[in-house]
Write a structure and sequence with these properties.
heterodimer; A: alpha+beta; 3 helices; B: alpha/beta; nine-stranded mixed beta sheet; 25 strands
């Protein structure tokens, strides 16, 4: 089981840890997957971790995590924890919420 | 289970007083009910109470999904109703915090597919039979897309249908927002049962109401019913059965004022309602006190509800007119409660009274004054509450004594307006009669159903020994009371005294006359005797005279030696002897 402990503890810049909660291959979930992939495209795989949690496979865990709607993207680290709901269609607001715009560019 | 419902339609009792009655058994079993209402109308409490009741009494399990409030807040609020959710939460209740944090970023469309999958799992694990989606509108509005909203509502409904769980979806309704109106039009169409909760202000008093607008396959009461959030939870005030089926009693209960019992041909009927109207200070409370004192003296429990006047004050005041209530309070026979009218709505008062009557089961109840309820916001609500109180008490065989404060000039019109006078069985009106520089209390029986009663106006007299009624005099079309009555009584007494004196005098005069006559008789008698004695003397003298004359003649003849000659003396003597003696 992938867990929060697996998030590498980077020395300087904290590594971006993301979780994407989906409901199988529901249209909204599929759209979120591809939108997120587009946002993260070009980033070094060391710069972030992405874990996908499927409600249909681990329903009770997803619920315990306090996720209500699918899809939901949770930025677990660095703090503050942020939740983004929806298909992640609005690229700019997603990037802002993930803190990826600060000086680093997109 | 009840009349007029489709065959096989099962219902899930809510355990909410009144609601199960209106819907003939509760919510549609295994189906969805939509609970719409304005903020603060009681949606959350209603929905939660159905879960709590089912868990407590039926051992059922339920899930509560809170979209609007933090579940901790809900649990804390529930504690004020005496619901120990912590105990139930261990295995019968599951709260899911579905309130999205304020920091959530909304980026595109989403759905409930994931959470419903999780709930399927959870429901199976708990053997859940009831579920509440509280404040679904909060989440739906984030979609910002009517079509997507409909899609999710439809998804939710499908899930509920498939799960076979009895579901409640609550949502805020805002008549001014066309979007919400559209949203609910769709939801109402889909679900099996729709209940609308209302919250409004009338005369600055909060009033809540509940109305069932749709119930597929079942009959239901269509009116709006008052809804109260009491200290025990939700209470929906119903009128009870449409037909009145109270047991009627011929037994009489004492009024506590002996002359009033006589006027009413024995007292009030048991389980009847008595209304006493009057201006301030006309001794309404005193009559009420007499009534409960009489009840307690018989050993029957009584409940005295006073509005806006402290119980201790009433006890003290009544003690001054010889009505000792404290002893009965100490003995636990008399329960007194003072309520502030404007704190609660009339309906809330009704619910509270109902609870008191249930807990204390008194034989008699006083509501002093019932007119105070009309201060609680909304004339109609007050009337309904009053009628329901009387109706409920009647059904429990409780004799109710209500006082009603009315202003003097149009007392009877006002009392009729509150409609209590219509359903009161006995109506006594107390008024002031001002004449001769004073005001006196007058008592009239306006009506008393099913018993002969006096039509006389009486004067009500309060003294340290208690309450009594006095005959009033009517003179020249006016009743005399107070000093005027006392004067009249004095006058009558004086006349009686005068008449008696006159008779006595006449008697004495006659006695005197009789004595005089008797005396005269005695005098005459003595005279008769005197005359008789006199005559006897005369007779003796006469006899002696004749004898003497004879002797004389003889002596003369002897002396003369001649024959007796007829002379003058002889004539007179014979004449005298010829006089009758008696």
């Amino acid at each position: 089981m992938p867990d929060q402990e697996r998030v590498p503890d980077a020395g300087g810049d904290p590594v971006l840890a993301l979780r994407l909660y989906v409901a199988g291959d529901a249209p909204n979930s599929c759209e979120a997957r591809s939108n997120l992939a587009a946002i993260l495209e070009g980033r070094s795989s060391d710069a972030y971790t992405l874990e996908e949690i499927d409600f249909l496979r681990e329903p009770l865990r997803a619920m315990r995590d306090g996720v209500i709607v699918t899809p939901t993207l949770v930025k677990v680290a660095p703090v503050p924890v942020r939740k983004i709901i929806g298909t992640l269609r609005e690229r700019a607001s997603v990037i802002a919420a993930l803190g990826l715009d600060g000086g680093k560019g997109v | 289970m009840s009349i007029g419902e489709a065959v096989g339609l099962r219902k899930s009792e809510t355990g909410i007083a009144g609601f199960d009655e209106i819907t003939h058994g509760g919510l549609p079993f295994g189906r969805t009910t939509l609970l719409i209402g304005s903020p603060g109308a009681g949606k959350t409490v209603f929905a939660l109470e159905t879960l709590v009741n089912a868990a407590r009494t039926g051992g059922e399990s339920g899930i509560f999904i809170a979209f609007e409030e933090n579940s901790r807040q809900i649990i804390e609020n529930a504690a004020t109703f005496g619901w120990d959710l912590a105990a139930l939460e261990r295995d019968q209740l599951f709260f899911l915090d579905a309130k999205l944090p304020a920091t959530v970023v909304n980026s595109g469309s989403f759905d409930l597919g994931g959470i419903l999958a999780a709930l399927t799992e959870k429901a199976a694990e708990m053997k859940c039979t009831r579920i509440v989606f509280d404040g679904i509108d909060v989440l739906l509005s984030l979609l910002n897309d009517p079509e997507a909203e409909r899609r999710e509502v439809f998804r939710l409904h499908e899930w509920l249908m498939e799960s076979g769980i009895t579901g409640i979806i609550t949502a805020k309704a805002d008549a001014s927002d066309p979007h919400s109106t559209e949203r609910y039009a769709f939801m109402q169409f889909m679900v099996d049962c729709v209940v609308i909760l209302q919250h409004r202000l009338a005369d600055r008093v909060s009033l809540r109401g509940l109305r069932v607008v749709k119930y597929r396959g079942s009959s239901f009461a269509e009116n709006e019913f008052p809804l109260i959030i009491s200290e025990h939870g939700i209470d929906v005030a119903t009128f009870g059965a449409a037909e009145m089926e109270h047991a009627v009693s011929n037994e009489r209960v004492a009024t506590g004022v002996a002359p009033l019992d006589t006027m009413l041909d024995g007292g009030y009927y048991r389980a009847s309602s008595v209304l006493v109207t009057g201006a301030p200070g006309t001794a309404k409370t005193t009559l009420a006190g007499s009534f409960v004192a009489a009840s307690c003296a018989r050993g029957e429990g009584a409940l005295y509800i006073s509005f806006d006047e402290a119980a201790d004050q009433i006890v003290r005041n009544l003690a001054s007119v010889g009505i000792a209530l404290q002893q009965y309070r100490d003995a636990g026979l008399l329960h007194m409660r003072s309520m502030r009218t404007e704190v609660m709505s009339a309906e809330a008062h009704f619910i509270r009274l109902k609870t008191l009557l249930r807990d204390l089961s008194p034989k008699c109840m006083v509501l002093d004054p019932i007119s105070a309820l009309s201060k609680t916001g909304g004339h109609v609500a007050a009337v309904h509450a009053s009628l329901r109180i009387l109706d409920y008490a009647k059904s429990k065989g409780i004799t109710v004594f209500c006082t009603s404060l009315v202003s003097e000039p149009d007392a009877l019109t006002e009392s009729t307006e509150t409609q209590i006078s219509t359903i009161a069985d006995t109506w006594i009106h107390l008024s002031y009669v001002a004449a001769g520089g004073e005001r006196n209390r007058a008592l009239t029986i306006v009506k008393s159903r099913g018993m002969k009663h006096s039509n006389q106006v009486r004067e009500l007299i309060l003294s340290a020994d208690g309450v009594t009624l006095a005959e009033v005099y009517s003179a020249g079309g006016e009743v005399l009371m107070g000093t005027a009555r006392w004067e009249k009584e004095e006058q009558v007494r004086a006349e009686q005294r005068r008449a008696e004196a006159a008779r006595e005098r006449a008697r004495r005069e006659l006695e005197l006359a009789e004595a005089e006559a008797a005396a005269r008789i005695a005098v005459l008698q003595r005279e008769v005797e005197a005359r008789r004695a006199e005559r006897a003397v005369v007779d003796v003298e006469a006899a002696e005279g004749t004898q003497r004359a004879g002797t004389t003649r003889h002596a003369i003849e002897q002396l003369r030696g001649g024959a007796p000659t007829g002379g003058g003396t002889t004539d007179s003597a014979s004449k005298r002897s010829g006089t009758p003696t008696g």
